[in-house]
């Protein structure tokens, strides 16, 4: 009997509602008999495949890839959602990553399982075997989706390849069309849906997980078919990059129908929600990311200290809450992102209103500007002066000490990226922050405890900090690298409703009105907006594709979704063309004893530009060298 090396990860997946840990075998050389002849062996095999799923979670960044412990280059810093001190400019994923090879190893594992479990099927019930086969096909589909959204058409390997039984030339499989890969993904998810049970252990797929993932993948395919302008055809006529526009309706209908399958099986989390109660709505949205019993969670990746951990809290808490590692505020939400939300003063162009008649508006407290903001914003972004972990988060840019009679004029010309003037201004040039004595005799740190320290590497550079996924009761002593273990929600029902609404809106735009898609999109978007505490749309006439996209950006912010949305909508090159994102700098006026805000471009002058060739990533040169049958993507 052949033997294969299986590296069994000590990755504990809590697969039962009681959070029972999954014990896995130590790394060893084991036989097929050891693996397939017992449920424990199969559980270990499955654990490894699930741990290898290309999930873009707390341990993913475009720069460092999947499953990296040290992640301080967040995906949100490439999309305009946030600024980062350590990353700016390019949205391109690092082409030197091992994603290609890692994915094909997982595909091989899934194929190997599917081909060999039948030899041991007499040990199990038909239902068990069908479930495991369904899981293998689910894993293969999710892994192919990670490949196709990056590279377009890739080699289609649906069986185990063995050397030397098969010659070298047989192993040099050329790329197939992007369309055929999506068709394989669709078929695999359908197979999984048909064979998986309605419920499964937490962290494993059930039939509705497969349907939810299908809605995501088919939506991607449908929008690529509609919006893509990059094409590559090989010598055999296979369209390696791009999908015929005529297939847009097919894929969008598949996305819509798959999303509908989850109706009544999951729901939007509203355990602590109350109509008209902004505080309850805020707390409800905060809680949905930590409640293991949430009916919104469809598929999650669980962490458990000390066996499996990440560093999300250490890298992202506001500075005044940072632990001994000395990291904080890596994710700094942009004003552009904040302005997507409802409920605070705005100019006619949708930008935040901070002046009246050419003079700054003054506030008693920094939170006054956002007093009526939709609760979802506060639950996603730490606003200056809001409370986190029982502490008011002090974010300031400085203290204005100049004259105030007749109002305070803008400190800089519109559109400037210059440094603030030092006249009539007290700033902190370094992290020591010499306190300033105010006219009333009290003292104040110029930038607060979490504001913009121009000489410090742990401050907010945008005027905001991240709130989503920050554990609200983690003590500062535990805010350390690789000490966080909150669960990552890879797929939740809100995304499925957004997939459904977007597919419906796109189908309506393509003349597919037989199911009244527009009305259905309106219903789903309003359900999400109601839970968020946002103003409801008044009728389906208000529902456009842009409205759906905006809602998606708000609801799924900082969940590593917008990176791929911008790519599949083919808007990244338009949104990022030497783009400088905006920030909101709070100041304290010493003579007024009040605050004002300066909305401005990022003073670091960080510019973001997206090259259209990046819609399809470069196939690793190491793979091209192995097989001359692989055609490189355009422009590389």
Descriptive overview:
The structure is a single chain. This protein is α+β, with helices and mostly antiparallel strands. 32% of the residues lie in helices and 11% in strands. It has 18 helices and 22 strands. It has helices at residues 32-36, 39-52, 99-116, 126-151, 168-171, 178-195, 207-227, 248-260, 278-287, 312-316, 335-338, 375-380, 493-509, 517-532, 545-555, 562-568, 572-575, 621-626; strands spanning 3-6, 28-31, 82-83, 232-233, 239-241, 297-301, 332-333, 355-356, 359-360, 381-382, 387-388, 391-392, 398-400, 425-426, 436-437, 443-444, 465-466, 488-492, 577-579, 582-589, 594-601, 608-609. The strands form ten sheets. It has a four-stranded mixed β-sheet, with no helix packed on it. The chain has a two-stranded antiparallel ribbon with strand order 1-2. Strands 3-7 form a two-stranded antiparallel sheet. A hairpin with a 2-residue loop joins β8 (355-356) and β9 (359-360). α4 runs parallel beside α7 (207-227) and α7 runs parallel beside α13 (493-509). It is globular and about 85 Å long. The chain starts with a strand and ends in a 10-residue tail after the last helix.
